[in-house]
Structure formats: structure tokens, C-alpha cells
Fold:
Amino acid sequence: MGVSRFLALFALVALCSSLVEGLGVNWGTMATHPLPPKIVVQLLKDNGIKKVKIFDADSITMSALAGSDIEVMVAIPNNMLQIMNDYDAAKDWVKRNVTRYHFQGGVNIKYVAVGNEPFLASYNGSFLNVTFPALKNIQNALNDAGVGDTIKATVPLNADVYNSPEDNSVPSAGRFRSDISDLMTDIVHFLNQSGAPFTVNIYPFLSLYLNPNFPVEFAFFDGTSNPVLDNGIQYTNVFDANFDTLISALKAVGLGNLPIIVGEVGWPTDGDRNGNAAYAEKFYNGLLKRLSVNQGTPLRPNQYIEVYLFSLIDEDAKSIAPGNFERHWGILKYDGQPKYNMDLSGQGQSIMLVPAKDVKYLPNKWCVFDPNGGGNISTVGDQITYACTFSDCTALGYGSTCNGLDANGKASYAFNMYYQVQNHRDLSCNFQGLATETTQDPSTANCNFTIQIATSSTSAFLPFVPLLTVFVSVFFALLF
Ligand SMILES: *[C@@H]1O[C@H](CO)[C@@H](O)[C@H](O)[C@H]1NC(C)=O
Ligand SMILES: *[C@@H]1O[C@H](CO)[C@@H](O)[C@H](O)[C@H]1NC(C)=O
Ligand SMILES: *[C@@H]1O[C@H](CO)[C@@H](O)[C@H](O)[C@H]1NC(C)=O
Ligand SMILES: *[C@@H]1O[C@H](CO)[C@@H](O)[C@H](O)[C@H]1NC(C)=O
Ligand SMILES: *[C@@H]1O[C@H](CO)[C@@H](O)[C@H](O)[C@H]1NC(C)=O
Ligand SMILES: CC(=O)N[C@H]1CO[C@H](CO)[C@@H](O)[C@@H]1O
Structure:
């Protein structure tokens, strides 16, 4: 092949480099200052993202999606599952949150998520009895409304609904968790009957986080010198191993071919020593490459896998009960700015996502610790605890981006986070004489002192659920 033909071919390939087929993202809104839905929808379009999974069916979000042709998975939150056990309530929900948009609203709804990881062991079985009846009612209501052929109800489940025995932890030994195996069997048979996929959330980061002995390289896709051997198959990463454990669990109940969607997969960038931009970039780079060539997994090779990245944007009001990293899952920062290189075509090019456009910020003012402001220095710890109870200080923890600040810097960071959450409201930068406003950016090379997004609403309300007091005291006892 001549050089010019080669170049022409190269140019053609570059031109065709489009998004990984069918790639989706999770769009969560548990933020003190969520980006306006219109800006988010434009962001999705600018990046060629055609599928989105949301955690409710909020009408402002739905209106922003109308006419975009983006495929949507709407959701029923766990706390509404009980209500959906009543068929009339389910019919009403479908009418108000699905068919309305489907027939008149121009929103391309594809799935209804019934609950979100309702069988997590940490929920102590609270949703065990209500999830399956809700699933059946919602699918039946979709069928009754005449949209059941195109819109399917599914239950996004955490990967802890299946496992393999500890003494033989290979994917082929995968089974549904013993305490819920009958329930899971019923659910998957129902999914098969209705033509719906199984939706599973897979988190290699959590494997690493929860198990200090977990081999780091097994969390990524770059190979390992120590693969898991299973009936002649070599597993070199936990994503494949986890996905195939599910396939084995499905096989064991006679449904080895049930379609599977990965409802969430991703890597956080802060709040833990393994949650950082370098690892996130490495993880997504490996994942997107595989998805782009439809590599599949050893038990389902050469197949397209429908995947929703978790998540689109950081959420500073998420519960940190699972860990400080919870607020840093975004492939974009709170304001829609990229964090690291990411090539959604899966070709590993050194490019970044297209940032959010037309984002309005509060004025360039920060709040910092002022030792000469007349306040009582020995109360600074209490003031920090207060600031961090009502804002996000997770970047200060061990292994996080702002952990390297000195004690004064940490106080400034906490005060600024509170001041930003409060929209620079009067007296929100006082802390009994220990803080002062400044127009000089206190950010350091590693630690970003943010300026929040200007919200359109004038009521500076506080959607913040105060963190568990116990957690806050423990956290800050560690800092000081
Ligand atoms: C469903 O629609 C109703 C009415 O529009 C709305 O109040 C409710 O929040 C929606 N449900 C969810 C889960 O978003
Ligand atoms: C589950 O049980 C544990 C231990 O009894 C308790 O600490 C926790 O708060 C419970 N969680 C929920 C969601 O009820
Ligand atoms: C679920 O149902 C079982 C059997 O009827 C019952 O023993 C259990 O208490 C119920 N669980 C909840 C959380 O309601
Ligand atoms: C400063 O605060 C400490 C701790 O609350 C208190 O014991 C002390 O009396 C205060 N000092 C002044 C000058 O108010
Ligand atoms: C901090 O974040 C903002 C918003 O994303 C960005 O514009 C700025 O460059 C960052 N500053 C530093 C020092 O990283
Ligand atoms: C994998 C599997 O068993 N799929 C079944 C799902 O249900 C349909 C009937 O609705 C069967 O034809 C499939 O074989």
C-alpha cells in the first residue's frame, strides 16, 4: 500500500472515529448546585452520547431531554417500591412518568428502572418483599398502556446479588446469593418473559477499596502476570470475571442467554488513595477500547455490551456512607469541565470530553481562614466541623487531593466549601471572626478551591442533608 493510500485510509479511520456504539452515561443530580438540565443535554449531544440513565423522572430533566432523541432509562426510587405494589399506583406512575412523555413529550424512553440496587446487603432486606411485585406491576402497566413492546422494566442490581463460593471463587461457579436465590430466579424468569435485560452495576474500584489484598492490576484492563484460571479460560481483569460470574448464575437457573446491561461502571477521582484521575483515565481507556471493538467477555465473546458509565458529573451532596469517593464519580467535574483525557471512540487518543457550555459561576471570590480576624483560634476545629457538616470536605481526607494542605490551608478549604454552597451569602464567610473573603485564588497545584455555579433560583436553600455527626467528628479528629 502506497504512503498516500495509507494516509487516506488513516484519515478515513479518523473521520469515522465515533462514539463507542451505544455508550450511555448515568446522570445523577444529588448536588447542591446541579448544572441546569438544558446545559447537560447539550453536553451529552456535544459529546455524541445517545443514552442516558437517570434516577427519577423529574419533569424538568424530562423536558430538557424532549426532542433530543437521546434514549432514556427513567427510574422509580427504592422508597416508592412499596407504593408500586398497588397496581393502580403503578398504572398511574406509568401514565404520569412514561406514557405522557412517550406519546406527547417526545422523550425516547427505553427502560424503566424499578428501584436502584434494592437488594444491597446494607439495606438489611428492606426491599426484598416489594421489588418483584413492583417490577411485575410496572411491566404490566407498560403493556396495558400499549408501550410494553418498546419500553421494558428492569431492576438495576449491585453485583453482590451473585457470587461464587469462597473456596472455589471462579466465574464458572457463580450463583445467585443464597439468601435471595429463589427471588432472583423468579425475577430473571420474569425478565426473560417480558423481553427485558438484566441490569447489573460492576465496580472494579470497589473490589480494590473493600479488599486491601486485591491485586491492583486485576482492576484494570492491561493484563496481569497472575490471571485467574477457570476451565481453560484466563481471567485477567475483574470486570470480565464479575460479568461471567453473573452469566454462570443465570446459566444455573436456565437463562444463560438473558441479555445483560451494565447499568453502572466507573472510577472516582478523589476521596481515596485509589480514587484519582490517573487511575480513572487508565480504567476508562481500557474499558472503552474493549467496548469499541465489541470484545465481549470470555463467556460471551465478540459481543456488544450496553454500558452506562457512572457517572457524568460529580455530586457533592451524595451520601458518603459507602466512602468519601462517592462524591467524585464524575467523568466531569461539578461544573461540567473534564478531569482527564477520555476518548469515547475507544481509540485511546489524548483528547478530552467537550466541556459544558454557558455555565454561569458565582463571582471570583473565595473564603479563607484568617488567624488575625479576632476570632478565638481554639474554636477553629468546631468551625471546620460546622462548615464540613453542610458542605463537601471529602477532598481533605487521607489520600485525597487537598490532604497535603497544612492546618491553616485545611481550615480555608472547609470555610470556602461552605461559603460556595451558601452562594456567598452574607455572613457565610465569618466563622466567628476566623474567616475572610478574598479575590485571590487559594488553589494549589493539587487542590482546587472551587467557585460554585450560580443557580437561577434566588432562594439560597440548603438541600444538604447533614452528614452523620459521628462520621464528621471521626473524620476531623483524623485531620487535626
Ligand atoms: C412522576 O411524576 C410525578 C408527576 O409528574 C412527579 O411528581 C414524580 O416526581 C415523578 N416520579 C419520579 C420518580 O420522578
Ligand atoms: C442495617 O443494620 C445495621 C446493623 O443492625 C444498622 O447499623 C444499619 O443502620 C441498618 N441499615 C438500614 C438501611 O436499615
Ligand atoms: C418479607 O416477608 C417475609 C415473609 O412474609 C417476612 O418474614 C419479612 O418480615 C418481610 N420483610 C420485610 C422487610 O417486610
Ligand atoms: C476560646 O475558646 C476556648 C474553647 O472553647 C475557651 O475555653 C476559651 O475561654 C476561649 N477564649 C476566649 C478568649 O474567649
Ligand atoms: C479549579 O476548577 C475550576 C473549575 O473546573 C477550573 O476552572 C480551574 O482551572 C481549577 N483550578 C485549578 C488550580 O486546578
Ligand atoms: C435464555 C432463555 O431461556 N430464553 C427464553 C426466554 O423466553 C422465551 C419465551 O418468551 C424463550 O423462547 C427463550 O428461550
Confidence is low (pLDDT under 50) at residues 1-16, 458-480. Residues 66 and 105 are 6 Å apart (CA to CA). The longest helix spans residues 87-105.
